[in-house]
């Protein structure tokens, strides 16, 4: 993936705004994955259960969970501990990394109904030993508890270094089904744990994500292009295309409603930028603080048949601009 040339100058770039920079300690995942996890917990109200999280790390070091698995056939859980089926974890991990490019980035387990909402000392010791043993720079742990009202999830990021305790993270929950749960489909049916608690049993207003920062679709101005379903389809189309080539890509929404898909190309930061008035103003690529032409193999988004939308398809770069005010 390489960029074409462009005659545009750096003055065309949006000015950096600290308000557009998200806090660094977040976990990004989809509603489908936390619902699956919560259903597993509801199957086991009086004993601990657990599983593992697969995805990737964003360039800011945030875990992006794309697919969650549950306990394997030989997993063991009591009121005070959970141990995953290691053979099951290895088999799932081999499939997910080699066929889907998903890394094992974390694990989850529930604590007893009266247990801690934070990792126990044993939990932290186990995670840190595993990080040292496998040479990991970071690892993510989810602790789930069952109160009288709803499942509750709390996320903790462990990193190599002098800090003795993990960082408690904010949740950024993306609506809908993870694209990897769609892609993997039946590949793990009969293999991954299938909760007895049926889908839809854990509505969003009952599931508690501690320190949640996004629990629903963001609201845009009336005429913003992402209010249209086809606009959301276009963003997902290009996000998936970039992420397939640059794992760790992430979407950022600025307060001015500029949308950026951030990624790294050849160890350099880059972005696909949608200005607030898109499609009246075309999207453009930025690499190494320069506006550049699109990649040579950049595809055109084709809206579904019958979709009524003013959105442009792969618009050209914006015209030459003068110095920013």
Mean pLDDT: 78
Order of helices and strands: EHEEEEHEHEEEEHEEHEEEEE
- Rg, rounded, reads 21 Å
Helix/strand/pairing category:
alpha+beta
Output the CATH topology of the largest domain.
Cytidine Deaminase, domain 2
**Number of domain modules:** 2
Extended strand count: 17
Helix content range = 10-25%
Q: CATH H level of the largest domain: which superfamily?
A: Cytidine Deaminase, domain 2
Instruction: Give the CA-based shape.
Output: globular
Report on the biggest sheet.
7 strands, mixed
Beta strand %: 25-35%
Broad CATH class of the largest domain: Alpha Beta
CATH-level-2 architecture of the largest domain = 3-Layer(aba) Sandwich
Compute the number of helices.
5
Which ranges are low-confidence, i.e. pLDDT below 50, for 5 or more consecutive residues?
A: 4-23, 308-325
Secondary structure elements and their pairing?
Blueprint: E1 26-30, H1 31-43, E2 50-57, E3 63-69, E4 76-77, E5 82-83, H2 86-100, E6 103-110, H3 121-134, E7 138-146, E8 151-159, E9 167-168, E10 170-174, H4 179-184, E11 208-209, E12 212-214, H5 229-245, E13 250-253, E14 259-265, E15 268-274, E16 284-287, E17 290-292
Parallel strand pairs: 1-10, 6-7, 8-11, 10-12
Antiparallel strand pairs: 2-3, 2-6, 4-5, 7-8, 8-9, 13-14, 14-15, 15-16, 16-17
Characteristic terms for this protein:
5-stranded antiparallel sheet, 7-stranded mixed sheet, globular, 2 domains, disordered C terminus, alpha+beta, 325 residues
């Amino acid at each position: 993936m390489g960029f074409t040339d462009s005659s545009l100058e750096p003055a065309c770039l949006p000015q950096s705004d600290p308000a557009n920079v998200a806090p660094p300690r977040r976990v990004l995942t989809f509603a489908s994955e936390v619902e699956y996890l919560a259903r597993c917990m509801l199957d086991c109200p009086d004993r601990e259960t657990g599983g593992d999280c697969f995805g990737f790390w964003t360039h800011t070091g945030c875990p992006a969970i794309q697919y969650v698995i549950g306990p394997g056939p030989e997993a063991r859980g009591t009121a005070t501990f959970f141990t995953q089926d290691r053979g099951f974890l290895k088999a799932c991990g081999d499939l997910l990394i080699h066929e889907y490019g998903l890394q094992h980035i974390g694990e989850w387990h529930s604590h007893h109904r009266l247990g801690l909402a934070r990792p126990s000392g044993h939990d932290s010791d186990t995670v840190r030993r595993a990080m040292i043993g496998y040479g990991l720079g970071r690892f993510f742990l989810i602790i789930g508890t069952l109160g009288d009202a709803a499942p509750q999830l709390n996320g903790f990021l462990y990193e190599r270094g002098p800090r003795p305790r993990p960082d408690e993270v904010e949740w950024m929950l993306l609506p809908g089904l993870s694209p990897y749960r769609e892609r993997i489909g039946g590949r793990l049916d009969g293999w991954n744990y299938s909760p007895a608690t049926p889908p839809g049993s854990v509505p969003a207003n009952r599931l508690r994500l501690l320190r949640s920062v996004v629990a629903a679709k963001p609201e845009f101005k009336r005429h913003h292009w992402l209010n249209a379903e086809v606009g959301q389809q276009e963003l997902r189309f290009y996000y998936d295309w970039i992420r397939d080539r640059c794992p760790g890509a992430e979407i950022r929404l600025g307060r001015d409603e500029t949308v950026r898909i951030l990624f790294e190309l050849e160890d350099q930061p880059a972005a696909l930028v949608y200005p607030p008035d898109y499609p009246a103003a075309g999207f453009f690529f930025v690499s190494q603080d320069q506006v550049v032409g699109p990649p040579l193999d950049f595809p055109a988004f084709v809206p579904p048949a019958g979709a009524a939308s003013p959105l442009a398809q792969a618009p050209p770069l914006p015209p030459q601009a003068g110095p920013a005010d």
